[in-house]
Amino acid sequence: MAKVYLGLGTNLGDKEANLRTAIYKLQERIGKQVSLSSFYETAPWGFESTHSFLNAAICLETPLAPLEVLHTTQEIEKELGRMKKSVNGVYSDRSIDIDILLYDDLILQTPELTIPHPLMTERDFVMQPLVEIAGNVMHPVLQESLSALWHKA
């Protein structure tokens, strides 16, 4: 079983219900919940919106391979009303966003998936909830704890 860390975000509709529904579906299809962060209200990042975000991080134990996790999270996003993913750094409001942040200590770069998430250390809305549940976890590329990386930013 692998430990996969996911970042969750929503800024449309009943945000808490969106996160809780996503968490339920993730546990049902990807694996057992190891830990779940608090929910954090944050400002939009990378685009203008009048809607604040609610963000969280979750760790699951999974038998699934990374690409299976990706495809499962994309299915859940569609089921919860996500119409399109961000393209070329153009972001928009969304009912749910699920990003794979870490998968054990795997380093993976394919056209479809990059692990660890390449922008995670630049985003407080990712790092704050992630550090809450995984502060001592080492970033497999940067070889520093997530907590140390977040406090440097």
Automatic annotation (TrEMBL):
SUPFAM superfamilies for this protein: 6-hydroxymethyl-7,8-dihydropterin pyrophosphokinase, HPPK
Any single Pfam family the record assigns to this protein: HPPK
Gene3D superfamilies: 7,8-Dihydro-6-hydroxymethylpterin-pyrophosphokinase HPPK (3.30.70.560)
Repeat among keywords: no
Biological pathway: Cofactor biosynthesis; tetrahydrofolate biosynthesis; 2-amino-4-hydroxy-6-hydroxymethyl-7,8-dihydropteridine diphosphate from 7,8-dihydroneopterin triphosphate: step 4/4
UniProt similarity note: Belongs to the HPPK family.
Function of the protein: Catalyzes the transfer of pyrophosphate from adenosine triphosphate (ATP) to 6-hydroxymethyl-7,8-dihydropterin, an enzymatic step in folate biosynthesis pathway.
Entry protein name: 2-amino-4-hydroxy-6-hydroxymethyldihydropteridine pyrophosphokinase
Originating organism: Bacteroides mediterraneensis
Phylogenetic classification of the source organism: Bacteria, Pseudomonadati, Bacteroidota, Bacteroidia, Bacteroidales
Gene: folK
